[in-house]
Amino acid sequence: MIKTLSKVFFALYILTLLWLVLFKLSFDITGILLHHQSQSVNIIPFGDIASGSIRELIDNVIVFIPLGLMLGMFWQRINLWRKLAYIALFSTTIETLQFVLAIGATDITDVIANTAGGFIGLAAYDAAAKRMNNKALNGCIVIGGMVLLVALLVYRFAFIKVLY
Question: Quick one: which of 13, 8, 41 has its CA closest to 153?
Fold first, then answer.
Protein backbone atom coordinates (compact mmCIF):
# COMPACT_ATOMS: atom_id res chain seq x y z
CA MET A 1 0.00 0.00 0.00
CA ILE A 2 2.81 2.45 0.82
CA LYS A 3 4.37 1.74 -2.57
CA THR A 4 1.15 2.74 -4.36
CA LEU A 5 0.64 5.76 -2.11
CA SER A 6 4.22 6.86 -2.71
CA LYS A 7 3.69 6.82 -6.49
CA VAL A 8 0.44 8.77 -6.15
CA PHE A 9 2.09 11.28 -3.81
CA PHE A 10 5.07 11.66 -6.12
CA ALA A 11 2.82 12.39 -9.10
CA LEU A 12 0.74 14.89 -7.09
CA TYR A 13 3.91 16.52 -5.75
CA ILE A 14 5.43 16.92 -9.25
CA LEU A 15 2.18 18.37 -10.63
CA THR A 16 1.88 20.76 -7.68
CA LEU A 17 5.54 21.74 -8.01
CA LEU A 18 5.07 22.53 -11.70
CA TRP A 19 1.87 24.47 -10.90
CA LEU A 20 3.71 26.41 -8.21
CA VAL A 21 6.87 27.20 -10.15
CA LEU A 22 5.35 27.85 -13.56
CA PHE A 23 1.97 29.33 -12.70
CA LYS A 24 2.38 30.54 -9.10
CA LEU A 25 -0.62 28.44 -7.97
CA SER A 26 -2.98 30.28 -10.35
CA PHE A 27 -5.92 28.56 -12.02
CA ASP A 28 -5.86 30.99 -14.96
CA ILE A 29 -3.19 29.05 -16.83
CA THR A 30 -4.53 30.03 -20.25
CA GLY A 31 -4.62 33.69 -19.24
CA ILE A 32 -1.06 33.50 -17.97
CA LEU A 33 0.14 31.88 -21.18
CA LEU A 34 -1.67 34.45 -23.33
CA HIS A 35 -1.30 37.69 -21.36
CA HIS A 36 1.79 37.51 -19.15
CA GLN A 37 4.41 37.22 -21.82
CA SER A 38 7.79 38.16 -20.44
CA GLN A 39 11.16 36.56 -20.85
CA SER A 40 14.25 37.29 -18.87
CA VAL A 41 17.37 35.33 -18.07
CA ASN A 42 19.71 35.82 -15.14
CA ILE A 43 22.97 33.91 -15.45
CA ILE A 44 24.70 35.64 -12.53
CA PRO A 45 24.34 33.41 -9.45
CA PHE A 46 22.84 35.26 -6.47
CA GLY A 47 22.91 38.52 -8.45
CA ASP A 48 19.48 39.60 -7.24
CA ILE A 49 19.90 38.71 -3.55
CA ALA A 50 20.50 42.36 -2.71
CA SER A 51 17.03 43.24 -4.01
CA GLY A 52 15.39 41.33 -1.17
CA SER A 53 14.71 38.01 -2.86
CA ILE A 54 16.19 35.97 0.00
CA ARG A 55 12.67 34.76 0.86
CA GLU A 56 12.24 33.35 -2.67
CA LEU A 57 15.63 31.65 -2.38
CA ILE A 58 14.57 29.95 0.86
CA ASP A 59 11.20 28.98 -0.63
CA ASN A 60 12.96 27.37 -3.62
CA VAL A 61 15.14 25.31 -1.30
CA ILE A 62 12.17 24.18 0.79
CA VAL A 63 9.89 23.12 -2.08
CA PHE A 64 12.58 20.87 -3.57
CA ILE A 65 13.39 18.99 -0.34
CA PRO A 66 10.54 16.51 -0.96
CA LEU A 67 11.97 15.75 -4.40
CA GLY A 68 15.22 14.66 -2.77
CA LEU A 69 13.35 12.60 -0.18
CA MET A 70 11.28 10.88 -2.84
CA LEU A 71 14.25 10.15 -5.11
CA GLY A 72 16.09 8.78 -2.09
CA MET A 73 13.14 6.51 -1.46
CA PHE A 74 12.63 5.38 -5.08
CA TRP A 75 16.23 5.14 -6.25
CA GLN A 76 18.10 3.57 -3.36
CA ARG A 77 20.59 1.82 -5.66
CA ILE A 78 21.54 4.95 -7.62
CA ASN A 79 24.41 6.96 -6.18
CA LEU A 80 23.93 10.39 -4.62
CA TRP A 81 25.60 12.35 -7.42
CA ARG A 82 23.45 10.83 -10.13
CA LYS A 83 20.29 11.60 -8.14
CA LEU A 84 21.54 15.14 -7.62
CA ALA A 85 22.20 15.45 -11.36
CA TYR A 86 18.57 14.44 -12.03
CA ILE A 87 17.36 17.10 -9.60
CA ALA A 88 19.54 19.75 -11.28
CA LEU A 89 18.30 18.63 -14.71
CA PHE A 90 14.66 18.78 -13.57
CA SER A 91 15.19 22.26 -12.14
CA THR A 92 16.95 23.44 -15.30
CA THR A 93 14.07 22.06 -17.37
CA ILE A 94 11.51 24.00 -15.31
CA GLU A 95 13.54 27.20 -15.59
CA THR A 96 13.89 26.67 -19.35
CA LEU A 97 10.12 26.12 -19.64
CA GLN A 98 9.57 29.50 -17.98
CA PHE A 99 11.66 31.08 -20.72
CA VAL A 100 10.16 29.10 -23.60
CA LEU A 101 6.59 29.78 -22.45
CA ALA A 102 7.52 33.41 -21.64
CA ILE A 103 5.91 33.20 -18.20
CA GLY A 104 8.67 34.19 -15.85
CA ALA A 105 12.28 34.82 -15.15
CA THR A 106 14.78 32.09 -15.89
CA ASP A 107 17.35 32.32 -13.13
CA ILE A 108 20.50 30.33 -12.36
CA THR A 109 20.01 31.17 -8.68
CA ASP A 110 16.72 29.25 -8.76
CA VAL A 111 18.46 26.22 -10.28
CA ILE A 112 21.12 26.37 -7.54
CA ALA A 113 18.54 26.79 -4.75
CA ASN A 114 16.30 24.03 -6.13
CA THR A 115 19.25 21.67 -6.42
CA ALA A 116 20.35 22.54 -2.88
CA GLY A 117 16.85 21.70 -1.62
CA GLY A 118 16.95 18.38 -3.44
CA PHE A 119 20.37 17.68 -1.93
CA ILE A 120 19.03 18.40 1.57
CA GLY A 121 16.21 15.91 0.90
CA LEU A 122 18.65 13.27 -0.36
CA ALA A 123 20.97 13.77 2.64
CA ALA A 124 18.04 13.65 5.07
CA TYR A 125 16.80 10.41 3.53
CA ASP A 126 20.26 8.82 3.70
CA ALA A 127 20.73 9.91 7.33
CA ALA A 128 17.29 8.66 8.37
CA ALA A 129 17.71 5.38 6.46
CA LYS A 130 20.75 4.57 8.63
CA ARG A 131 18.61 4.88 11.76
CA MET A 132 15.20 3.60 10.64
CA ASN A 133 13.68 0.68 8.85
CA ASN A 134 13.20 1.68 5.18
CA LYS A 135 9.55 0.65 5.15
CA ALA A 136 8.77 2.80 8.20
CA LEU A 137 10.81 5.70 6.81
CA ASN A 138 9.05 5.52 3.45
CA GLY A 139 5.67 5.45 5.19
CA CYS A 140 6.58 8.53 7.24
CA ILE A 141 7.69 10.40 4.13
CA VAL A 142 4.55 9.54 2.17
CA ILE A 143 2.08 10.26 4.98
CA GLY A 144 3.93 13.41 6.06
CA GLY A 145 4.20 14.56 2.46
CA MET A 146 0.51 14.04 1.81
CA VAL A 147 -0.39 16.01 4.95
CA LEU A 148 1.90 18.86 3.91
CA LEU A 149 0.55 18.84 0.36
CA VAL A 150 -3.04 19.05 1.62
CA ALA A 151 -1.99 21.84 4.02
CA LEU A 152 -0.41 23.76 1.13
CA LEU A 153 -3.57 23.46 -0.95
CA VAL A 154 -5.81 24.53 1.95
CA TYR A 155 -3.46 27.46 2.61
CA ARG A 156 -3.55 28.37 -1.10
CA PHE A 157 -7.35 28.45 -1.22
CA ALA A 158 -7.86 30.09 2.18
CA PHE A 159 -5.14 32.75 2.30
CA ILE A 160 -3.40 33.37 -1.01
CA LYS A 161 -4.78 35.74 -3.57
CA VAL A 162 -2.81 34.83 -6.70
CA LEU A 163 -1.44 37.81 -8.57
CA TYR A 164 0.64 36.74 -11.50
Answer: 13
